[in-house]
Amino acid sequence: MTRTVRRTRRPLPWAAGGAAALLALSACSSSGSDSSAKPDSSGSGEPSGEVTVFAAASLKESFTTLGEQFEKEHPGTKVTFSFGGSDSLAASITGGAPADVFAAASPKTMKIVTDAQDASGAPATFVRNELEIATLPGNPGKISSLKDLTKAGLKVVLCDEEVPCGAAAQKALDASRLKLTPVSYEQDVKAALTKVELKEADAAVVYRTDVHAAGDKVAGVEFPESADAVNDYPIALLKDAKNAEAAKAFIALVRSAEGQKVLSGAGFLKP
Amino acid sequence: MTLPTDKPRTAAGTLRPGSPRRRRVRTGVPLPLLIPALLGLAFLIVPLAALLVRTPWQSLPAQLTSPEVWQALKLSLICATLATGVSLVIGVPLAWLLARVDFPGRGLVRALVTLPLVLPPVVGGVALLMALGRNGIVGQWLDSWFGITLPFTTAGVVIAEAFVAMPFLVISVEGTLRAADPRYEEAAATLGASRFTAFRRVTLPLIAPGIAAGAVLAWARALGEFGATITFAGNFPGRTQTMPLAVYLALQSDPEAATALSLVLLAVSIVVLAGLRDRWMSAG
Amino acid sequence: MNRTRTATGPSVDGLDARLVVDRGTFRLDVALAVAPGEVVALLGPNGAGKTTALRVLAGLTPLTDGHLRLDGTELDRMPPESRPVGVVFQDYLLFPHLTALDNVAFGPRCQGATKAEARAQAAEWLDRLGLAAHTGAKPRRLSGGQAQRVALARALATRPRLLLLDEPLAALDARTRLEVRARLRRHLADFEAVAVLVTHDPLDAMVLADRLVVVEHGRVVQEGTPADIARHPRTDYIARLVGLNLYRGEADGHGVRLADGPSLTTTEVLSGPVFVAFPPSAVTLHRERPTGSSARNVWRCEVAGMETHGDQIRADLTGELPLVADLTTVAAAELGLHPGAEVWATVKAAQTHAYPV
Predict the structure, then answer these.
(1) How many B×C Cβ pairs under 8 Å?
(2) Strand partners, A120
């Protein structure tokens, strides 16, 4: 286990090194076998061993499905995921956390990794996420457009402008010259969605995938202005990948027709 | 810094070398206590000191003069004070009930009272929504009968803060009540005082220092409240955006601003707590 | 409920009570009848149930059984604040945050007087008890004796029909005690309603009370005037309290055969079960077996312990008859008394006192 840490080549700030060590420990302990972490340098073409994927939280359901599919298609492989906020994942990667693949929820967060020269090759956009209005089941407020959200008496929550979904929503509102005063600027997209799920707010502007994941607890209303605020999801192979072969194969699966089917099932749009 | 343990050694050395009696006269702090104590102090102080060190002092004046900061600070102080008031009005009688009335299931009730202490505040906020929200089990009646909805209002902030802060007050006051001699209440009863009069005219003045200490704890907790507030009351500048919420959201894009805001909150807390301590706690 | 009345108590005025409290291993069952103007002391060792009895009278502990009537009114279901009862607690329990005046005014205030009225009454009570100079003092500034008087004033200010005093002098030092005891005696003599005090000190009880009720293990073991009880103790506890040697035995003429010991000769002619008592001063000690002594009561004893008792030596003896003897220091020195020494004890029949059980 300590070997993994020692292999980290670049000198690290003390705190980041500590965090990396912790991450490395947790990654190793979840893998179970040390031998699987060895790079597959035989070049036989058939991926094997363990592949570690850092992915945005919104990808959790679809990537978990894809991971199982990958392990089935390539016996002898094991996909380990770390889901989280794209920002913090990017910070871990630049801090030296051992990962093979990074799938981010925005080009901005991917840029953190590419700027640090931690990606191998250019990142590719594999899905896009669009905004959608989440409203109460059955749409009692008869909301059909972004403009309807400005109706008096309607309680609308938006994400705070500091977080991506809020910035995107503001972009869409600005593009259509709408002025919307919400009852609250929520700290993240899940919090905004929760307010509608608990029927405290009548509507929220969230991602399509979130409306999807909420099932019948909310009703989704698409609006054309969302095209002005589409969020691209980039994926990249990392430079320090220990299992580049399997990592490449996983990225290929995500971008394949098969992978795209799973992702669009979760509400993502094709790139 | 001079360690207190250094003193006895120098004293023994200069006055009467090797005399054990001399050494015992001075009260040295035993190392097994001193070292963890200093470690504990450092553990609490170093992060705060780091905040000071990393504060962007150049941009601080600009941060402090921004109306948003004042708005959030004002709202924080008002809501924390109101939440403390609410906690006092309903928390002190609750503490009295727990300390003085023997009823079945008292142990369970006491555990329930302290539950908000262990509940993640965000969960507390969701629970409040389920209870007092527009669609909550109590909130729906508030809405349909009185037209009151609490989420996304300043009142909602006060409620969320009181929910999280009140256990501190109840525990503190209950402890003081248990330590106070219940026979004073009996003496009052033999003089013709009802239990309420005895509580108001005898018990309350006797436990005032404990109540003050509990109120200060509750106020401090309410001032720093984040999770329950943002979940129950949302985040809207001037109405529900308190300092901790402003700090958290600033942290997403501008960590420097967040540091500056934290410093303001820290400074105000220190001033208020130090002031209250001198005024109230030393008297007790 | 048991409605039996005690022999002394079928009066309408005053206190008529049978107090029964059951607390698992401890059971209190005490009947009390006290006329207005009478002062009764509940006397007994620690743990006898005296304070419990007092708490029951005040309404602070509920009755398990029995009855409680004061001036013809049933009190047993009345909450303490409604009872016309005043209590002076052992450590006074003066409210520390209030001045002496406001402590005394507390009762009248609770009874509905305005603040000014209550304070006027309080000032009058404090004045009557000689505390006019201390009305503005907080309890911690008062001496023990002053605090005791403030507590008495506070209890009297509610004009109770039953005044209860729990060990009223126990918290005082010996010197203050003497003075306060005399004062309290006067105040209690002036009090026109029922007064019950609880004490474990026989001197307090005898000075302050008209009648003693001795309680042991939750029961009344003896009742009577102080003089009567001092002369005729019926239990070892009382005998020790009043400083008498007490034995129980079977009388047959002048002789009394003790339960497990030798015989005693007395002046009284009795038969059947009797108590025999004599004071420690009636005992004479000898180094040798006395010959030709007129004393018929002669026992061989061993000194178990000695202590000074005033200007005398009190010797604790074991042997044929366990007894306590008083002798002068000179006599003790002449006898060469020391723990373990063997002595002969004699008591003149004329100094013993026998009375039926």
Answers:
(1) 59
(2) A237
